[in-house]
């Protein structure tokens, strides 16, 4: 069962453009020819590995033009009723208009899963509209340019987040083209040219977020990193405006920090106004590439800390730990050794995670923390050429080949990297379903070692080589 998407929004936000982008113009025409049994108003669409139907609302607007706004509303409601998921589309370039709120209200009332598409995001000044889109209360706006085909990977991720994996991939995932199915279960960014020289772009701003339990010192860390004056551009600025990110640079490296107004406000007036909600935490993690987990070194590794680290890793982001309040520690050497050992033991999913002692209050350790963040970001972006991978594989097969299952030895043919951010590999083998999890873990650890990828999630997908 595929799911149905309705693209909803006021006129001119780019719904038709998005529709065409998802459906592909040709496909739309083909579907429109008589004799095709498929419902004419529903068109097959594709977003990378997601296959779904888009409800065509193209006719609705004509109706609206010649009749009452009420009619348009009714038509929108029909489309919403049919849909499993709504792409609520706004024009980030022009910003929110009163009509956007009217449509948002209809969408909200439907109770259907929604992805807010902030279209025309490539346009100058779209950032403001992006921020405004949060006000709709329909969740995180996804910046997209339907016209230029930008932001589509994030749109894909948002669809999966909104529907859940099982629903997004339908029940017939296994029926999908075997050639690509395996790499599609990996998250992250597609590698377009696997043989291109690995490169790392350090001119683009790196997106980071700071998370942790209440009182761990998140606000103090943020302020120490950025400096208060950078946060507060006017007497009211940092206080009244809820913004999602702050740009700054650290020794020339451009950064974008996910920021909740609550955190800044609190730090400034030294009061416990609010704690970061779970919702905020998740939003921050999804926003970020690298997530700094601030732990209070005097009470580290509570259950919540581990849960948050696990969530970061599952979301495919890379965690970096800051052991804060280090100024209060009596035997720093011993404690650091102990905490690092604990990190490895408690969080084996991202072995080799960077963990740095800091004192946000005195500023000590922050340089090292940021070095660790930058290093981790590089690793998270890393790429290994197919040639190197298969030379590595030869060694593995010679010294620690896969086990025999039911008397037949499992064979591995080759390995390629299909994704970065985080690194994701496709292992082509004789019987993927028979491959023991322990062996997959062994491969992942060995890849991590061989290609120096500490502290980031590494994904492996198996695919059949026959
Ligand atoms: P609809 O009325 O919501 O279906 O909007 P259309 O798809 O007809 O688009 C309205 C206008 O916005 C057209 O002039 C499009 O070319 C333009 N447009 C659509 N998507 C984008 C985009 O991503 N960026 C920019 N700059 N313009 C866009
Ligand atoms: P948040 O709730 O995680 O944002 O934590 P805050 O930044 O508000 O800090 C909580 C408390 O810990 C405040 O009283 C801070 O002054 C204190 N604190 C934060 N960082 C440090 C530090 O490095 N050393 C010490 N001794 N106290 C700190």
TrEMBL record:
Keywords of this entry: GTP-binding, Nucleotide-binding, Repeat, Ribosome biogenesis
GO biological process terms, semicolon-separated: ribosome biogenesis
Binding site for GTP 2: 212-219, 259-263, 324-327
Domain EngA-type G: 3-167, 206-381
Molecular function per GO: GTP binding
Alphabetized SUPFAM superfamilies for the sequence: P-loop containing nucleoside triphosphate hydrolases
Binding site for GTP 1: 9-16, 56-60, 119-122
Record InterPro entries: G_ENGA, GTP-bd, GTPase_Der, KH_dom-like, KH_dom-like_a/b, P-loop_NTPase, Small_GTP-bd
Job description of the protein: GTPase that plays an essential role in the late steps of ribosome biogenesis.
Stated family: Belongs to the TRAFAC class TrmE-Era-EngA-EngB-Septin-like GTPase superfamily. EngA (Der) GTPase family.
PANTHER family in the cross-refs: GTPASE DER (PTHR43834)
NCBIfam families: GTPase_EngA, small_GTP
Subunit structure: Associates with the 50S ribosomal subunit.
Protein name, UniProt field: GTPase Der
């Amino acid at each position: 069962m595929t799911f149905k998407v309705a693209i909803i929004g006021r006129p001119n936000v780019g719904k038709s453009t998005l529709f065409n982008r998802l459906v592909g113009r040709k496909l739309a025409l083909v579907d429109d020819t008589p004799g095709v049994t498929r419902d004419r108003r529903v068109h097959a669409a594709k977003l990378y590995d997601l296959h779904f139907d888009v409800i065509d609302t193209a006719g609705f607007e004509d109706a609206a033009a010649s009749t009452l706004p009420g009619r348009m509303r009714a038509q929108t409601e029909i489309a919403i009723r049919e849909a499993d998921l709504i792409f609520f589309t706004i024009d980030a370039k022009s910003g929110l208009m009163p009509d956007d709120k009217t449509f948002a209200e209809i969408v909200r009332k439907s109770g259907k899963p929604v992805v807010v598409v902030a279209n025309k995001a490539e346009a100058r000044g779209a950032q403001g509209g992006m921020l405004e889109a949060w006000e709709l209360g329909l969740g995180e706006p996804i910046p997209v340019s339907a016209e230029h085909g930008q932001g589509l990977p994030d749109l894909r991720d948002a669809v999966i987040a909104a529907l859940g994996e099982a629903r997004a991939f339908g029940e017939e995932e296994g029926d999908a083209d075997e050639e690509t199915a395996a790499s599609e279960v990996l998250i992250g960014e597609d590698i377009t040219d696997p043989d291109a020289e690995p490169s790392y772009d350090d001119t683009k701003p790196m997106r980071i977020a700071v998370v942790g339990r209440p009182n761990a010192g998140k606000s103090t860390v943020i302020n120490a990193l950025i400096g208060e004056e950078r946060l507060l551009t006017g007497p009211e600025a940092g206080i009244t405006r809820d913004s999602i990110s702050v740009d700054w640079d650290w020794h020339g490296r451009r950064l974008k920090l996910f920021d909740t107004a609550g955190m800044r406000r609190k730090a400034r007036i030294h009061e416990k106004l609010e704690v970061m909600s779970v919702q905020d935490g998740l939003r921050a993690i999804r926003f970020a590439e690298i997530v700094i987990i601030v732990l209070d070194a005097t009470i580290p590794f509570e259950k919540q800390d581990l849960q948050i680290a696990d969530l970061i890793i599952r979301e495919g982001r890379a965690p970096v730990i800051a052991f804060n309040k280090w100024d209060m520690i009596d035997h720093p050497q011993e404690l650091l050794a102990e905490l690092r050992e604990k990190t490895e033991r408690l969080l084996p999913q991202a072995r080799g995670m960077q963990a740095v002692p800091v004192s946000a209050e005195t500023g000590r350790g922050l340089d090292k923390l940021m070095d660790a963040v930058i290093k981790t970001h590089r690793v998270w972006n890393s790429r290994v050429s197919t040639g190197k991978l298969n030379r590595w594989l030869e060694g593995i097969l010679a010294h620690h080949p896969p086990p025999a299952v039911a008397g037949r030895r499992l064979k591995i043919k080759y390995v390629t990297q299909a994704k970065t951010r985080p690194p994701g590999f496709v292992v082509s083998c004789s019987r993927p379903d028979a491959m023991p999890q322990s062996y997959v873990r062994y491969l992942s650890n060995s890849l991590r070692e061989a290609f120096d990828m500490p502290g980031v999630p590494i994904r492996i997908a198996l695919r059949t080589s026959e």
